[in-house]
Amino acid sequence: MSKRALSVTREENFPEWYQAVVRDGDMAETSPVRGCMIIKPWGWGVWERIQAELDQRIKDTGHDNCYFPLFIPMSFIAKEAEHVEGFAKEMAVVTHHRLKNVGGKLELDPTAKLEEPLIVRPTSETIIGDAFQRWVKSYRDLPLLVNQWANVVRWEMRTRLFLRTAEFLWQEGHTAHADRDDAMAETMRMLEVYREFAENILAMPVIAGEKPANERFPGADNTYSIEAMMQDGKALQAGTSHYLGTHFAEAQSIQYQSAEGKLEYCHTTSWGVSTRLIGGVIMTHGDDDGLRVPPAIAPRQIVIVPMLRDKPEDASLLDYCAGLEKDLKAAGIRVLVDAKQVKSAEKRWSWVRRGAPVIIEIGGRDAAGGNVTFMRRDKLRDGDKVISQTMPLAQFVSEAPTLLSEIQASLFNEAKARLDANIVTGITSFDALADYFGAAADSDDEAGAFKGWVKVAWSRPEGAELDAIDDRLKALKLTIRNAPLGQEPVAGACVFTGAPAKEYVLIARAY
Amino acid sequence: MSKRALSVTREENFPEWYQAVVRDGDMAETSPVRGCMIIKPWGWGVWERIQAELDQRIKDTGHDNCYFPLFIPMSFIAKEAEHVEGFAKEMAVVTHHRLKNVGGKLELDPTAKLEEPLIVRPTSETIIGDAFQRWVKSYRDLPLLVNQWANVVRWEMRTRLFLRTAEFLWQEGHTAHADRDDAMAETMRMLEVYREFAENILAMPVIAGEKPANERFPGADNTYSIEAMMQDGKALQAGTSHYLGTHFAEAQSIQYQSAEGKLEYCHTTSWGVSTRLIGGVIMTHGDDDGLRVPPAIAPRQIVIVPMLRDKPEDASLLDYCAGLEKDLKAAGIRVLVDAKQVKSAEKRWSWVRRGAPVIIEIGGRDAAGGNVTFMRRDKLRDGDKVISQTMPLAQFVSEAPTLLSEIQASLFNEAKARLDANIVTGITSFDALADYFGAAADSDDEAGAFKGWVKVAWSRPEGAELDAIDDRLKALKLTIRNAPLGQEPVAGACVFTGAPAKEYVLIARAY
User: Helix/strand/coil (H, E, C) string of B167-181?
Assistant: First the structure.
C-alpha cells in the first residue's frame, strides 16, 4: 500500500501508475467510443497552454495557420498509396451520409451511399498538397509556409490515453520550397523549434536527431525527431520533422516557374507534434503523488485553498484569499481560489494529484498574521513528510514569479540529470547490447528494471541489411531512436555489421 | 463593369458579390471534398480572434473547456431519435476502419467493418450527456459548466462558404443545473454573452429573442437566438442558446442527489456559435471593394506597404517601416509590413479587398518627411475617389489606438443604422405582409430589392395552427426569426390568427 497520494507507485507498476495519474490528475478518461478519449478541464488546460506557446513559435518563424477539410477523398489516399511504400491503411472510412428510420429503428440509408468513400484524415499531406498545387505558380509564391491545428484519426488496436489514441489532436506544418537547401533548412528549423519548446516550456529534455531509414515517415527522404526519456527508461518520440524531397510534389504536380522561366518541382516538408506530448509530460514529471505540471503549461500556476469551516469567519478568510489572488494576477500569474464546499484536505490533495506547481493553504492564523503557507509541488516531501513554508504575504507575492521559474528549472534539471545518467555507452557488440537489456524477447519490458538508452556506433546500413538489424532489435523489443545531431566524431566498428562506424545512434525500448 | 475592387457589386448580384469577397479577400475556398471548405490564412486569422475573444467570455462566466470524441456511437443517436422529434438524419457515417490493396487498387476491407457504425458528431449533446451522467452525483457537482471548440459535420445539400458547409467549426456549451431557474438563467446569460460579443467585437448589431416553437432545437423547451440583418435585408441566425428542460437528462439518466437526499433529474442547456459568424461579418461590413474587418477581429489591424522600387533606396524605406512597425507593436497593435516583391499598388488593393482596417503606404517622400500616409478602410472613398491622409509619424502612432476604436464604432454604427431603418412596423394583416415582401413564391429573393424585416403582433400559437402559419410563410420564403427580448407591450390582434396578440415577432427572409 502506497504512502503516497496515488494507489500505485511507479516502481510497483509503471503502466498502472500512468493510468492513475491520468485519472486522479483529472487529465482525461476513456469514452464509450473505442480508442477516443475525453480530455477533461485540467488536461485541456495543459493542451491550451501547449498550443499557445507552440503556436507563437510557429507564427514567429513565418508560418500562417489555415484549416483544411476533415475528410479526404479515397482517390487521394489511393494515389499516395501508389507512390509511398509502407503506407498505413488503418483509417476511419465514411461510406454513407444519412440514417433512416426503419420501423422505429435507425439504420444506414442504402440510398445515401457515397459514390466515393471519404477517409477521416490520418494526416493531411494529400489534401494540403492538392491546395499547394493550385496556390503555387511562381518562385515568388515560395516558400509557402502553412500550419493547421486539427484532430486526426488512425485506427489503433491498443490504445493508451494521450500516448496512442484513435483520435488525437495535433498541429501539422506543411511547407513548399524552391529547392532542397531551403526545404532542409525549414526541416531543421522546425526540429529546433520543437527541441527548444520541449525543453523550455515542457521542461522535458530531449535529444534531437535523425531517424534511421526504416523509421522514416513513408515518402520522406529524411525524418528527424526529438526523443524524450520517460521515468521507466523508455523513449517517447515527442515530435517529428520530415524533408519530403520532391516525392509529394511529383505525385501532386506541385510545380513553380523559376526566375529563369523553367518549370520545377517544389521540395516539401511536414512536421508535427500532438496530444502525445501530454503523455510525455506526465511520464517525465509525475511522481507517486500524481502529476507535476511545469509552471509554463500549468492552467493554474498557483492554487489557493482557503481552509473554510462553514463558520462566519469564512467570509474574512475568503476576502484575504481574494486579495492575494488579485496581487498574484497583477503579477501575471495564473491563479485560482478553490472555494468549493469540500474539505480543505480533500482539495489540497486533489491539487497535489493534478500537479499545480504551488498550493497555498490559508487558515485563520495565516490571515490574522498576514502570512501565506504554501507547498512547492516539485519538492512536496522530505522523506514521507509533506513540507510547507510560511512567509509574509507581500514577500510571497514579490517572490512568486521567481519561485515559479525555480520550479520550472528544477523539473527540467531533475529530468535532465536522469537522461544524462541513463545513456549507456561503451557497448560494442550486439550480444553485449542484448545482455544489457535482458537478452530474451520474453523479458517483460513493462515491469522490467530501468534500463535507459544505449548509444552505439553503427555504419548506417540501409535496405535489406537494415531490415535484418531491425528484426534482431525487435526481438528484444528495441528500436533505433535516432542519430543525435551535433554528435562527437565516431570511432570503431558498427555494433551490427562490423563495418567502420559512421555515427552513433540511440537504442531503446519505446512508446 | 464595377469601378470598385471587386468584379461584381452588391447591387448587381449579392450572392455573387459574397463569393467574390470570400475569394478575393483570401478568406476561404471550396475543397475537393463536397461541402467542406479550406479556410485560408486571413479567414483563419479572423476565426482565431473570434475564438480568443469569445473563449475569454466563456471562461469569465465560469465554464471549463474540455474535448469530447469526434465520433458518436450510432446507438446514442438512435436513443436521441427516439425521444426527439424532428431529428435531422443527414450525417456522415463511418462503417469501416481499414482499406486494403486489392490488385494494386485501394478498397474497403470487408473484414474491417465496424460492429456498430460511428457518426461524425453533428453536435455533442448525446456524448457529453453520457459523460455528465457519470460526472454528476450530488448537488455539490452542480452547476456543471462545460464548453468545447470542435469541428462538426452535417450533410448539407446546398452549401455556401462559411454560411452552410458540411464541416464547420464551432463552440458548443453544455451545462447541467439543479433546477429550471438556474438553467434558464444560464440560457439567458449565454445569449447575452453572444449579443455583447456580436455587437462589441464583430461590430454586428443583433436582436436577441426567443424562437417560435417550430424553430426550436429538437428537444429544447425554449430556444433563443441572436439575429443579424445582412446587407440584402435577409436575417442571419448568428447564435443560439437552448434550455433543454429535463428531456436529455431523462433520456440519459443525468441525475443528482439533492441536499435533501432525493434523486432529481438535471436541467440542461446548450449554446453555440460557429464559423457562420464569419459569413455574417462579411455580409454586414463588406462593400464593393471587398471585406471590411472590424479592428477587434482583424488579424492585422494596420498593414504597412512600403513602395519599393527595387533600388538601393529601398533599404532605408524598409528601415523606416520597421521603426513604425515597432512603435505600433509597442502600442499593442497587430501590425504587418508587407515587404513582398510585388508592385505596391497590387499589394494595396489586396489589403483593401481583405479589409485591413488601416492601410499605410510609405514612399520616399513620407520617409524623408517623417510622415505616414494612410487609408481608413471604413471610409475608403469620397464618391469614386480613394482618399488618404498624411500626418507626422509620432502623431499617427499616438492616435492609432483611437483611430482603430473609431473604425470599430463607425462599422457598428453604419450597420446599426441600417438595422434600425429597415424593421417595418404597422403591418396588421397577412395580405399586407405578403404584399410587402412581393407576394408570390416565385419572386426571386436572391436578386430582390432590399426588404428588411417586418415586426408584427402575434398570438403565439403552437401545434397545428403554428404549422399552418409556417407553411403560409414558407410559400413566401419567409420565416419567423424571433420574439425580441425586452419588447414594448403589444397591442392589437395577431396578424395570423386574429386572436388578441401576445407579443411582437420579427419576420424575414433568412440564410
Answer: EEEEEEEEEEECCHH
Element (H, E) at B71: strand B71-73
Shortest Cα–Cα distance, A434 to chain B (Å): 36
pLDDT at residue B139 is higher than 90:
yes
B39: which chain A residues are within 8 Å (Cβ-Cβ)? 66-67
Alpha-carbon distance B49 to nearest alpha carbon in chain A (angstroms): 12
User: Is the backbone peptide bond immediately before B357 cis, with ω within 30 degrees of 0?
Assistant: no
Looking up residue A71, the CATH number of its domain turns out to be: 3.30.930.10
Task: Please say whether the beta carbons of A128 and A175 come within 8 A.
Answer: no
Q: What pLDDT shows up at residue B441?
A: 47
Closest to A242 measured CA to CA, from A270, A261, A266 = A270
Chain A hits for B342, Cβ within 8 Å: 140
High-pLDDT (> 70) share of chain B, %: 97
Q: Name the pLDDT band for B2 (thresholds 50, 70, 90).
A: low
Q: Does A91 touch chain B (CB under 8 A)?
A: yes
Instruction: Assess B40–A contact: CB distance below 8 Å, yes or no.
Output: yes
Q: Which of B81, B130, B169 is opposite residue A101, by nearest beta carbon?
A: B81
In chain A, which residues have pLDDT < 50?
1, 440-441, 446-447
Confidence at residue A441, expressed as pLDDT on a 0 to 100 scale? 47
CB contact under 8 A, B66 and A78: no
pLDDT at position B103 is 78
Whether residues B400 and B428 share a domain: the answer is no
Q: Nearest-CA distance from B349 to chain A in Å?
A: 18
Instruction: Report yes or no: A479 and A466 within 8 Å, Cβ to Cβ.
Output: no
Task: Using the 3D structure, point to which of A253, A285, A317 is the last residue of a domain.
Answer: A285
Asked whether the beta carbons of A214 and A473 are under 8 A apart, the reply is no
Kindly provide the ipTM of the predicted complex, given to two decimals: 0.95
Q: Say which residue the cell 454604427 belongs to.
A: B413
Closest C-alpha among B203, B240, B207 to residue B378: B203
CATH number at residue B329: 3.40.50.800
Q: How far apart are CA A185 and CA A195, in angstroms?
A: 15
pLDDT confidence of residue A147: 98
What is the rounded distance in angstroms from the CA atom of residue B374 to the CA atom of residue B387? 9
The residue segments making up the domain with residue B472 are 423-508
Contact with chain A for residue B89, Cβ under 8 A: yes
Round to whole Å and give the CA distance between A504 and A458: 6
Site from B33, B120, B152 to mutate, A interface, most A CB atoms within 10 angstroms = B33
Per the CB < 8 A criterion, the answer to whether A360 and A347 are in contact is: no
pLDDT, position A105: 83
C-alpha A325/C-alpha A391 separation (Å) is 16
For A32, which residue in chain B has the nearest alpha carbon? B73
B128 three-state secondary structure: helix
Question: Do B36 and A95 lie within an 8 Å CB cutoff?
Answer: no
Judge: B67–A38 Cβ closer than 8 Å, yes or no. Answer: yes
Using pLDDT thresholds of 50, 70 and 90, give the confidence band for residue B450.
Answer: confident
Amino acid at A360: I
Chain B partners within 8 Å of A140 (Cβ)? 340-342
A225 and A196 within one domain: yes
Tell whether pTM > 0.90: yes
Q: Which residue on chain A is closest to B117 by alpha carbon? A: A108
Q: How confident is the model at residue B102 (pLDDT cuts 50, 70, 90)?
A: confident
Cβ–Cβ gap B93/A106 under 8 Å: no
- Per-residue pLDDT at B1 exceeds 70: no
Tens-place pLDDT, residues A391-438: 999 999 999 999 999 999 999 999 999 999 999 999 999 999 999 998
Q: Is the residue at A105 inside a domain?
A: no
3-class state of residue B186 by DSSP: helix
H or E stretch covering B421? helix B393-421
Neighbours of A263 (CB within 10 A): 9
